[in-house]
Amino acid sequence: MTSQTTIPATSGAFTGSGLQMPKTVRVNGLNHYFGEGELRKQALYHNNLDVRRGEIVIMTGPSGSGKTTLLTLIGTLRTVQEGSLTVLGNELNGADRDLIVRLRKEMGFIFQAHNLFESLTAYQNVNMAAELVGLDPMVAEGRINSLLTRLGLGHRIHYKPKSLSGGQKQRVAIARGLVHKPKLILADEPTAALDEKSGREVVTLFQELARDEGCTIIMVTHDNRILDVADRIVNMVDGKIKSNVAVKETAVICDFLKGFPLFADLTPNTIAELADQMMVHEADPGDVVIRQGDAGDLFYLIRTGRVDVFINDGTQERKVAELKEGQYFGEAALITDEPRNATIVAHEPCIFYALGKDDFRAVLETSATFEEELRQALFRRQ
Amino acid sequence: MKSLTKTPLAWKNLTHDMRRLVVAICGIAFAVLLMFTQVGFQNALFDSQVKLIDDLAGDIFIVSKAKYTLAAEKRFPISRLNQARSCPGVEGAYPIYTELTTSVVRRINNGMGNLGYPLRTIGFHLDDPVFESNEINDQSPKLRVKGTALLDRKSKQSKFPFPLDDDAALEQEYVELAGKRLTLVGTFDLGTDFAHDGNLLMSAESFAEFYPHRVRFGDPLSVIDIGVVDVDPAADVDEVRTFLEQTLDKDVFVMTRAQFRAEEIRFWDKSTPIGTVFLAGKIIGFIVGMVICYQVIYSDIADHMAEFATLKAMGYTTRYFIVLILTEAVLLAVVGFIPGTAVSTGLYTWLSGRTGLLMVMTLHGVLFVLVATIVMCVASGMLAVRKLLAADPANLF
Hints:
The structure holds two protein chains of two kinds.
Chain A: E1 3-8, E2 23-34, E3 41-52, E4 56-60, H1 67-74, E5 82-87, E6 90-91, H2 97-105, E7 107-110, H3 122-132, H4 137-150, H5 166-178, E8 184-188, H6 196-213, E9 216-220, E10 232-237, E11 240-246, H7 247-258, H8 268-277, E12 279-283, E13 288-290, E14 298-304, E15 307-312, E16 317-323, E17 328-329, H9 331-336, E18 343-346, E19 350-356, H10 357-381
Parallel strand pairs in A: 4-9, 4-10, 7-8, 8-9
Antiparallel strand pairs in A: 1-12, 2-3, 2-5, 5-6, 10-11, 12-19, 13-18, 14-17, 14-19, 15-16, 15-18
Chain B: H1 9-16, H2 18-49, H3 51-55, E1 60-64, E2 76-77, H4 79-85, E3 90-99, E4 104-107, E5 116-118, E6 120-124, H5 134-139, E7 148-152, H6 167-172, E8 175-177, E9 180-188, E10 199-203, H7 204-210, E11 223-224, E12 226-231, H8 237-247, E13 252-256, H9 257-270, H10 273-303, H11 305-314, H12 318-355, H13 363-389
Parallel strand pairs in B: 6-10, 7-9
Antiparallel strand pairs in B: 1-12, 1-13, 2-11, 3-6, 3-12, 4-5, 4-8, 7-10, 8-9
Helix pairs in contact in B: 1-12, 2-10, 2-12, 2-13, 10-13, 12-13
């Protein structure tokens, strides 16, 4: 028996290795409202989001889309009103002060404004975060110095913010957000005030933290120079998560899809959209995924595992082929609108990404229209 | 060890903006100065009220129970002193006579009119060791002539315009006291207070001449204003006092020097508006300081709302912020108190020179103002801290 899920293929819930990392942030049916009574206005609508340990998440979306609200909720800076929000294993809905203070110490905040104390030197400002978590002063000193040096402020460690440039101040604030080795970093446009080079240095640092320390990073940014570091891109519109895409997994799916002759001519954009429409299916060994003679309504891409293909020629059932990761089946019935022409049985535990008939057709039509338009355009040139 | 290495945020924030710090220090120093001025004047005035007590020799004092202040003309019979003399531990008991309402001086001179000016006449037996002052004791032989007196040099100049620095000229002055001819044979030093514009000092015999009707029928010296008791140096003053109190009739108070002094000050402090007036002055100084201190702390908080909100986001708790502001308040109090006290000391010296009032920095006064300053700063800090606690880190993103 195969189980059909509503998990989008591009969410990265099932990676190639099948390894499930613990969730750092789990948002479930989260609603949020601003204002009271008549003026009460909903800012977040039933949002769901899972962020794994060590992931770098970039949140995008127009202003007012609720991404900052979501970020402040995750950061315990606002009280959860409706739904469930689990951060670092703790439910925030109904959390008490002690839990919130404890969680805050495990997080690093980087705000758009640097918010440094003018009266303290760069070192002392960073040390405010180290002191709070009770870091050993000797250890803290080494870490602060190396962080500031790494961020190109080695010669300004004991300068006050007044004698630092805007970018330098922002880098001090970033160091302050990172010094206590937080498990979760929440950043709002961390690179907006930085030039290309130091912005790159900051995101490289983020990547190292994510890779080496398992630090999870969620940042709101419009800086497309740093999109390449994202493991996941979350797009919000009007208080809803419109798309939530695991970048690597999507790339894998797109690669697979491009191998399919029918899709070979599609533009990368269309392929990505197609990938977005796919849902995850699971199957255990021996499960029949499709049966010969049934009506066809899904197109399957094998993400992991192997399947056997059987054809019944009226007298006997015969194994004709074996399909494996990256290969696909079920397209014929969708194109021709005829019943399934073969039976597919899972050979081992399998994960498929499946595309519905209508979506499949729509894409093909888009493709046709595209070609048609191209022809028209070329024709008109003459 | 760990707490020593903590970033001293309160101190850093306070000293970061030097101009603001100087203004803050000036403001708090001004409040300190205001309070010191009130305390100084009050102490000086109270001290002048009890100057007579301070100048008297003796360990224990006896006054009538009806005598609620030195200026009240309530007396007790001499027999109480005779009783006291017979008590163990008493070396001597001496009477002091004072007269105020009928003690009016007129200066009859070149038809300048004959307005009378009241002052206090003090009479004592010349052989009794009742005064500490050598000046008085040295001049007492001059007072053996009846109708002579010493004039207080600090008597109000406008009312008693006598040539104080020239004894010979003083003796030539034609002066009447209570309608009788008085010869001024010298000067002494006592000082004025709220009730007395000046003082005359004379022998008990002269006193009896000038005021024969103190007692309707009988010896005018048979009623006494203040009894001065000398205690044997070997005896315990408190024990003697208790014994006297139990032995003497219940129409007198028996008090040690400290009690007598405290009672007199208490009267002026509590039973007259004087205490209230000075209290009001101190409260005004306190409020001025509080407003200034509140302004300084509040604007420091208001200027750093985003930074404080960031600290909150990082996980700093309400307690940290309260301690931070308390520290800032106490630091402000101390850095304002030091220059304030220095200036006040200067002012005391200057005022003492100008007015003759006894302005002294007492330990008690310094402690009082220090505590008031700290309370003032801490209270305003606690008022201002509410602003800080309202800092919302959710607004930072």
